[in-house]
Specification:
Length: 553
């Protein structure tokens, strides 16, 4: 059946809702998107006019890269990748590193060739990284010397991020260093294949409720649309701004803002390799930063420690904090506004599957609509769908949020079943979030249909931990739930059924998991029970266990 294309008279200007097709339309001004099909995101970013001088600063060393330094380095690295290593369109390149000034250079160089960048969390275990390598099949890896042991068994050729490329290990195939590649003169003999906007640019891995991490395939078109949204959201073309980067660049949040989005605007990005509160605050003071992207637990810490922080650091340059990961409560927003009256809170909602774009609050006034994820981003459409009946709902009715727009992924890598269950034939992305949209067009996230645990902004799939628990010789059954915590948001808690005669302890369970997963996935609380509640089809009744856990607070 052909889709109804509404005219503006059918759309409620207050909510953005169209009765004729039960779709919500963004109230924000649409972003213009380039019409030429033959365009890669690197070329799009490099061709944007701006007046910025310094692109990146390494907070630890003070090393600076100007915009001309960055583009010279991108040109040299892409030339080396093509001429020296035969990297071609469609090849996958693995990037395993903490935040670094090399991160955007590698991403932009790889994507300029039509090759595909896949990133992974430096905290992941070698086993977790090996699964991603087996799935994505990269032909080359970039990493730092300290992380070499995590890919030692991969047999991948490796480029060292930094000057050192001679570690003592016969197992490793170190081929060069990023510094050597950056010194290379761009080669006229490199193969420059035609890249189209629909070609794949990134392959980021998103935690699934089944426990199997899925590769999210995003196109150059997705990233170009994302860059336009980021630049226009903050009106970055109008004035020079300095951002602090503590959120992880391997994650969609960091990739959106720091590896691609902000370099298009002429803004300066101060990069911290990891989050450390004092280092972050010192960097704001030292570099007179204006914008601070963060996740809710850090914002809460800024409120709770405000008196000490304001005495110790000069944060007068800071005018905005950008918070993503979960909606902020009224208490947190009001507490922050009281302690930092000159700083505006801006919130955002997005998924890896939507290239980090979905909804946002773009002013203090919008953020004071407490609990909201914001208004739909430019060019974005939404539906609220009843999960049981499939009926599209109207204003102030709760259902699953579906999104459609130019930043929605192409699908999941080599996983037709998962793609079909998440993307429909008309391009609607089922977000897995239960939401409603109010009469003014603001989105409110009520609950997650997906059962992911959000620990400090990291996604932890319960099913992955449950599968590991069931491999323990003394565990008969197990369930993992999100346990609410003011400091970290949520942490994994396990309910465990011991086998008859077992004397397994709480610490024994936690230690067993800690040896097999990244630190953010560790189980931090255990309760032993006689049985795990399940529905007739055998599905764990996680909500019953959450109620039980919370009732004992």
């Amino acid at each position: 059946m052909a889709e109804i294309i509404p005219n503006s008279s059918n759309i409620d200007p207050r909510s953005g809702f169209c009765k004729s097709n039960s779709t919500f339309y963004s109230k924000r001004k649409p972003n213009p998107l380039p019409p030429n099909e033959s365009l890669d995101v690197t070329t799009f970013i490099s061709s944007r006019p701006h007046h910025g001088q310094i692109a990146f600063i390494d907070a630890a060393t003070g090393r600076q890269l100007t915009f001309s330094d960055v583009w010279r380095a991108v040109d040299a690295v892409s030339s080396s990748l093509s001429a020296d290593f035969g990297i071609r369109k469609g090849h996958v390149i693995l990037l395993l590193t903490p935040n670094s000034i090399y991160f955007p250079i590698v991403c932009l160089a790889v994507m300029s060739l039509g090759a595909i960048i896949t990133t992974t969390n430096p905290l992941n275990t070698s086993g977790e990284i090996a699964k991603q390598i087996a799935d994505s099949k990269p032909v080359l890896a970039f990493t730092i010397p300290q992380l070499l042991p995590k890919i030692a068994d991969s047999n991948l050729p490796i480029v060292i991020l930094g000057p050192n490329c001679n570690p003592n290990s016969s197992k490793l195939r170190i081929v060069t260093s990023i510094e050597e590649m950056m010194r290379r003169e761009p080669s006229q003999s490199r193969v420059k294949e035609r890249v189209n906007q629909d070609d794949t640019a990134t392959l980021l891995y998103s935690s699934g409720t089944t426990g199997a991490s899925k590769g999210v395939v995003s196109s150059h078109r997705n990233l170009i649309a994302m860059v336009q949204t980021v630049v226009n959201r903050f009106k970055l073309d109008e004035d020079k701004q300095t951002f602090i980067c503590t959120v992880p660049m391997f994650h969609i949040y960091g990739l959106v803002a720091f590896a691609t989005g902000l370099i298009a605007s002429g803004s300066t990005v101060v990069i911290l390799s990891k989050f450390e509160m004092d280092e972050m605050l010192m960097a704001i003071q030292k570099f007179s930063a204006n914008y601070l992207p963060l996740v809710p637990p850090i914002l809460v810490a800024l409120v709770n420690n405000a008196d000490v922080i304001r005495k110790k650091y000069d944060l007068s340059s800071l005018n905005s904090v950008l918070c993503g990961g979960a909606p902020l409560s009224k208490e947190v927003i009001e507490g922050f506004s009281e302690k930092y009256p000159n700083v505006t809170i801006l919130q955002g909602y997005g998924l890896t599957e939507s290239t980090g774009i979905g909804a946002s609050t773009d002013s203090q006034e919008e953020s004071r609509r407490y609990g909201t994820a914001g208004l739909l981003s430019p060019n974005m459409e939404a539906k609220i769908v009843d999960p049981e009946s499939g009926e599209a709902l109207t204003v102030n009715r709760t259902g699953e949020l579906w999104l459609r727009g130019p930043t929605i992924m192409k699908g999941y890598f080599s996983n037709e079943e998962a793609t079909a269950s998440t993307l429909d034939s008309r391009g609607w992305l089922r977000t897995g979030d239960l939401c409603y949209i109010d009469e003014d067009g603001f989105i409110f996230v009520v609950d997650r249909l997906k059962e992911l645990i959000k620990y400090k902004g990291y996604q932890v799939p319960p099913a992955e931990l449950e599968a590991l628990l069931l491999t323990h010789p003394e565990i008969a059954d197990a369930a993992v739930i999100p346990f609410p915590d003011k400091e970290v948001g949520q942490f994994p808690m396990a309910y465990v059924v011991r086998k008859t005669g077992s004397t397994l302890t709480e610490s024994g369970v936690m230690d067993f998991i800690a040896k097999q997963v990244a630190p953010y996935k560790r189980i931090r609380q255990v309760a032993f029970v006689a049985s795990i509640p399940k529905n007739p089809s055998g599905k764990i009744l996680r909500k019953d266990l959450i109620k039980l856990a919370v009732s004992k607070l």
